[in-house]
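Hi X.,

You mentioned you wanted examples for the new student's onboarding notes, showing what a folding record looks like when two proteins sit in one file. Here is a clean example. The first protein comes first, with its sequence line followed by its structure tokens.
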Amino acid sequence: MAILASTAKVLGKFVAFLAVSAVSGVLVAGLMMPAAAVTWGAAYGSSSFFDSLPSELTINPPGQVTKMLAADGSLIATLFNENRTPVSIDQMSPNVKNAIVAIEDYRFFEHGGVDTTGILRALLANVRGDRQGASTITQQYVANVLKENLVAQGADASNVLNGQKTIGDKLREMKLAIALEKQYSKEQILASYLNIVFFSTNAYGIEAASQYFFSVSAKDLTLPQAALLAGLVNGPSVYDPVAHPDNALTRRNLVLDAMQQHGYIDQKQHEDAAKTPLQLKLSPPRQGCAYAVQAQYFCDYVLHQVLNDPAYGATANDRLQRVAQNGLIIKTTLDPRLQAPAQAQVDSTAGANPDKWGTSLVTVQPGTGKILSMAQNTRMLPGQGLNFVTSYNFNVDRTDAQGNDLGGAGGMQPGSSMKPITLTAWLSEGKPTNQVVDASKRVYPLNYPWRDTCAHVVGAYDDAEVGRGAAPNLQNDEPGWYRPMPVREGIYQSINTALFATAAGLNDFCDIQRAADALGLHDGAGGGKPADMSTLGDLLGGLNIAPLTMASVYATFASNGTYCTPISIAEVDDAQGQKIGGQSPSCRANSIRPDVAKAATNVLQDVLTKGSGYNIKDDAGHTIYLGVPDAAKTGTNQFNSETWLIGYTRGLSTASYFGEALGNPEDHLGRNVFVNGRFWPVIDGAYIAGPQWAYYMQKVIGLYDHGNFDPPPPSLIDAPKGK
């Protein structure tokens, strides 16, 4: 008798609720626990409240996967908050459409958005103590849209999905569901629901769920697979087949029961499907640059370019949400034909690498600035193939890389690969490469009369003034080079005293700064500020410069004086295919005079045929030649811990680096070390970075212009007779 009295009381309230709904012209009902149903009227028991609820649903596209693509359209990485791939209704198996309707809303094709019969049935079940829901698929879709709208505004997805609903929330969903049914067909609503619904933290929507749990497309789901996925939406964690396989099987078979009961399958189909084991074939989504299919660190660089660009949102969070939620297509400049050989080469250069030497290769295209490849011998996560794991990007400025200010990304000391900056200043003053300078001079005291109009030159080289802050007398690597020699020879043999004699012979020392600025040289750790060339030690490479910057400097020589800012993003499209951004080439023609660039190239060609680059040898001791016109310069810092070769053809400019990329270069000397099983008394730019560059360039030079360089004017080679 007590149960009957309780039931009558609840039904009385329910009838009153239906009456209020009828006044508003819409039949709705609220399904709660019995106690909540008794108290609904105090807060919501008026037709004016229901009338005040919104009847139009703002449907924003649900969170989608952003894809980063290489220049040929191949995938680099996916980026998302929610792994979702929308598909049309005809790309979904009939099995899954039937299964979801059978278990979630078998009267879906009969009601108008709210199922009053189902509400009454569920209410009676709840009174008996059996918790049962009555939300239709349309209502569930509305609820998911409202959740997605909150997520799109930056709300935490887990909090949104797990939030508790009030009776008012339920009434709102009901009214919106009824209005939605007047706008869209049942098939459209069902497709939208299956594309938005949450199956797992790894899968939103039916296509992602199919791929994650079974590695198949939604259109190919078998009956038992479809039944399992349909069962998941009621409790993704409870019925997770990975964590709780027994629960998942029980739920799947319950779905099969419902499908048979409502005529979607026959007894034989039911029996066969119910006997089928789970047979999961998991394909976990790989989200983010750490799981990039190719070019992890290039991916990270591109992502930083987007997240730091106000064109993609007013705030950093806006930009992050746009990437993570909006299903962008980021088309990059990366050329996989270069990236694969670059990665293979840096991985092989240092081998197992117990001493954590860093290697990298980065290539830009002269005349456009497009970054074509970017590779280094590390991985972002353990277990990805190498024992050297770091998030730091060796190739780029600190502001363009993961990590912090403690070291790593942000450039390394380029050593003598900086010498072409002074050569550029010399040529810009109209001075010829074959002019002789006094490379025997080793002392440049604190009071040396440098001719400079823009800044006070800092530093000195003088044994007698070391106590006053000077460095010791200038040193060359070998003793036989303290003699007069042409500027050209001083560059291709990389003679320090010849470089200083060249600087001393300038009409204005400040032309070195002007050359550096024209070539785009900037401090890799200084937020992009120009490299300050007023310190004498920086003529020999004391600054920290990123490999990408060095590749771009040398690309200016390759393109006859046109400097191009490096670019990595060809185009960014939204989910509808509309272009919303990208980077166009940003180039300065005649950044240095074409004749100056041609003459510099003419000198740097000698580096590879008779200068320091002649020591680029294979394991058998033979000099490695590309077999096409090429030019380059080696570089080594004073500790032999930062070594370089930057070289180019007409179509490719590549910086090759080997050294201490993460720590203090003074603490990890490149002397008396084993690298890849070979003992090195001392490391030089030609020894490891050089072959790395040569082997890589041999594989890729044929893909881009590798014709002859333009000849320089004779006046920049030999001084006119009589002068």
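Then the second protein repeats the pattern, sequence line and then tokens:
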Amino acid sequence: MSEGILPKAYAFDEVESYWYDFWEKHGYFHADERSSKPPFCIVIPPPNVTGQLHMGHALNNTLQDILSRYKRLKGFEVLWLPGTDHAGIATQNVVERQLAAEGLNRYELGRDAFQERVWTWKAKYGGIIINQLKRLGASCDWERERFTMDEGLSRAVREVFVKLYEEGLIYRGKRMINWCPRCMTALANIEVDGEETDGFLYHLKYPLLDGTGALVVATTRPETMLGDTAVAVHPEDSRYAAYVGRKVLLPVMKREIPVIADAYVDREFGTGALKVTPAHDFNDFELARKHGLQLVQVIAEDGRMTEEAGTYAGMDRYECRRKILKELEHGGFLVKVENYHHRVGHCYRCKSVVEPMQSLQWFVSTRPLADRAMKAVRDGSTAIVPAKWEKDYFIWLENLEDWCVSRQIWWGHRIPAWYCRDCGELIVAREEPRECSMCKGTRLEQDSDVLDTWFSSGLWPFSTLGWPDRTPELDKFYPTSVLVTAFDILFFWVARMMMMGIHAMHEVPFREVYIHALVRDAQGQKMSKSKGNVIDPLVMMERYGTDAFRFTLAAFAVQGRDVKLSEERIEGYKHFVNKIWNAARLLLMNLQGEASLEEIPSKPVQLMHRWILSRLQRVVGEVDSALENYHFNQYANVLYQFLWREYCDWYLEMIKPDLYGEDEAAGRLAKSISVRVLEQILVLLHPVMPFVTEEIYQKLPGITGSIMKASYPAVRPEWIDSEAERAMEIIMGVVSGIRNIRGEMNVPPATRVEAVCLCENSAAKELLDAHAVTVIDLGRLSELKVGIAGEMQKPAQAAGAVIPGVEVHVVLKDILDFESESKRLRKELAKLEKEFGITRMKLSNEDFLGKAPPEVIEKEREKSGRLGEKIEKLSRQSGLIDGLRASAAAGE
């Protein structure tokens, strides 16, 4: 785009679509695997193919894009590799709901036709989130986009499965697993969400077989008693010592079961007597193995009662609960019912309550894999940032049980195992076998299960680069540089990638893992549709522009702290975008007809030029350090403060006399420095605000290429000038003091006032004398008097402020009507104190504190704090005005 004056308003919708298409068309996102540049690689946490862009995606991908664009500017060959996950259970559920609406189910279609239906759905809807990521400005290498079920990744999955099987690290066995009756599949332990639930604790009487008494057990799931095979008590519990070794009669089922002793029993829970249901509880299963107890499965895979449940067979598990409670109550076995708050396992996908049960499944032996994954973090091969997450990582891996990787669904990577129907031989192979390796029979049937989605995504950092082939991409970009992810999938995904990467590649999958927090609402609550506090990133981008939205996310991305987001904050940063635009427009309007700028001297004469160049060098270093250490909020805030406060509010204001004056040489120098500083600011801002920076950059004189091809600014030591920075701090402090006094004293903006500065030393006096014109102009003064403290008297009827080395006094005589101002302040104070009193009464009311929602109470506390600060400020002003009024009355 050609040079020229910027339009008055920034039309972000037009600019964003234009530049994204431009970048993509010119291949600026594509990585060259044969480049000699140092590599930088990020693999995108693959969103589910069913996904829609939400705030978690927006934060995660904004941070990745910042790093990718920053590293390109630093001269790295950047590969940000995108893709989507097939999301086995979630995607199957979506398509099954479509079938149900048509009066069909997957069994009626058959496996092949159902899979075809899912692929059709994927082709039509699976790219929605990819387009939304492009809307966010994600500079991914879309030419390398991958899908966890594409041909290459499927081959990698088979290779890893077979390799682990051959090494004895994958096996098929019957173990206790978590089962989802809705999804009809096994789940890994980590796929079970423990949700806090209000339920009941039922106390049930189990009579002794000899009729001499009874044991009372407590349970939250009375329907499982149908599968009880023992009652357990603690061996040191004196209450039950006489019962151990005897038998009780299981109510309803009338089955004789033993009373056993085991230290596992918690004497403080319930009655201290534990019903043992080995087929439906992980801990009870271990008790059964230890004591040789029978397993009786009374709940089937569909959540209905089995034949072992007797007369309850075929009932839904909750219907059975209601019926059995009635029968227990009728028979005198229900002693009491208590309210009980506890954690209940739910399927992470469909939210159904899971059922622990014994099942024949495929498992990965995780211990050797987990040990190597822990060692890699301990020895620094991979660093986790912030380091506090290392503890959670280690605890989880230290306690990791074998991983159930088989799923009883049809959408996913089918397990590469075949069974011979003639001799029963199991064959695990990379390619489909033609005959049985044992009996040479050809009647082979493939295992119907598919692999856990996390199995394939665990291979993501190397399978996406072409493994098991030794590709140029693999040689160039593996191990990847950093993984950016949320803490909630540290175990789901990060730990699995570490285990798989180290085992398959003999090298860690990434050098660093940056863990960011969650995006919450302004009150710190998790966003949910039920609460009505969800902020839609697409709506925010449409309303305020992508740059403002991205900058907001970065500005609040403090390490280890959740991002508290509100629409007002996004709107606030839209003003920042406009500030950049208006500053650039001001400069470009003064550059009309100038095709080039003059060279900037190594040490300009004027203080303001030396100061801004010095401050720029500091900012370049601070930004570099912040991004290298994943301090995204510091990166954003350093640039915000520098551009808005120092560059726009101070520097541009100070150079206006030169821009509009008659001294051509001074004007040319001001234009050259201001534009070159702006150019470097744009490059620094580009990673977080890619669109507005490119649009402005293209209009600057002498620019011929995209900002994406620019070089990151280098710190120029010759421009660092600490003395200029100290001097400007004094000048800015004096002007700020004058402005604050004017504001607090309610002096009209157009009114010129006299100021007196009393300096501690002659150096400060000489500085202010030399820059009196600047202070007068920026402080809107009629006159500035500068003297040495003790040698010059303080003016009468003046308001003062103190900055390091200088006392600033603004003369208010003949400027304010002290009597009227005193009345105004007293009236405003009375109003605020009344409002403050009401707020304090609320906060001291126990009834309000007990009933009001936490966010309402917090809002009231914030209001109280704000009112207190205002009252304190106005009280000071009122006291000062009263003092000036008394001074005026005394004729001073």
